[in-house]
Design a protein that fits this description.
288 residues, alpha/beta, five-stranded mixed β-sheet, globular
């Protein structure tokens, strides 16, 4: 498979139309169709279902789209790293970040680093710890800001100083908003919005103790802003970190007994980094 052909495939998958994709790629329609047919022959599978009005990806096509996006993104990242090497430090640093107050620590040090090296650019990818780790493994990210609990046995890491406090997001005009804290028994029978990550669910199960079997999970989420929106629209109350004022309509109430989570900045062990990433590692380590 050639990267050029994978880019053609991704264009068709995005446009769902060969004519539009061909115009976007500055190719003739027959040329593009021939390239796609050769790709299907090379892989031994059908990648598209052709209807009267559009082209739809098959299951194998959807799998290839995901892999093709990763390969093309990795190739582009590698090219950027090599094309910017000169006397002044430059390049791109890709960091995956979960939703945590330690993002403030990271942002402050990105700012101080760019004062020293203004030609270095940062690319921030927001996702859960599981998604970030997957992209680190595939080489799409240089490092990840991961909220615990998370398995980092295969990674080198640096523990960051700030901890995240757990609590619930509730509507300001709800009876629960008058509490100074909430205990496990207070959440029994209340529709809850919880993280979908297995490690987090296990941590919360330990906090709930015997009450865990009695709780009602209305929905799971991976991004707290979406959970906050559900709280505002009456779906339930959201269990999550205290990330400040997400909405004037909501109030954060801490858990009692207190539950806190640490954060680590993690990267693959024994990985050879670009000069920009290596310098940023030293910058972070010296700051701690």
């Amino acid at each position: 498979m050639e990267l050029r052909v994978l880019r053609y495939f991704l264009a068709v998958a995005q446009e769902e139309n060969i004519t539009k994709a061909a115009a976007l790629l500055h190719l003739t329609q027959p040329t593009l169709s021939r390239q796609l047919m050769q790709l299907e022959e090379e892989l031994g599978t059908k990648l598209f279902r052709r209807s009267q009005y559009r082209i739809i990806l098959t299951e194998d096509g959807m799998l290839l789209r995901r892999r093709a996006q990763e390969l093309v993104e990795l190739a582009d990242k590698t090219q950027r790293e090599f094309s910017r090497r000169d006397a002044e430090l430059s390049g791109e640093i890709a960091i995956g970040c979960g939703e945590t107050r330690s993002m403030t620590f990271l942002s402050q040090h990105i700012c101080s680093f760019r004062r020293l090296h203004p030609r270095v650019q940062f690319r921030i990818y927001s996702a859960t710890a599981d998604d970030v780790k997957e992209r680190i493994e595939s080489g799409l990210l240089d490092m990840g800001l991961l909220a615990e609990p998370v398995d980092i046995s295969r990674y080198a890491f640096q523990r960051l100083p700030q901890k995240d406090r757990w609590g619930v997001l509730v509507l300001k005009d709800s009876p629960m908003a008058e509490r100074e804290s909430v205990a496990p028994a207070d959440l029994v029978g209340v529709p809850l919005l919880m993280s979908g990550r297995a490690e987090v669910r296990g941590e919360l199960a330990s906090w709930f103790g015997d009450e865990y079997g009695r709780i009602q999970v209305a929905a799971t989420y991976n991004l707290i802003l979406n959970a906050a929106n559900m709280v505002q629209n009456g779906v339930g109350v959201a269990l999550g970190f205290d990330l400040g004022n997400l909405s004037d309509a909501l109030r954060f109430i801490p858990l009692s007994p207190t539950l806190e989570s640490g954060t680590v900045l993690a990267w693959k062990k024994d990985q050879i980094f670009s000069p920009a990433v290596e310098q940023f590692h030293r910058h972070i380590k010296n700051a701690n």
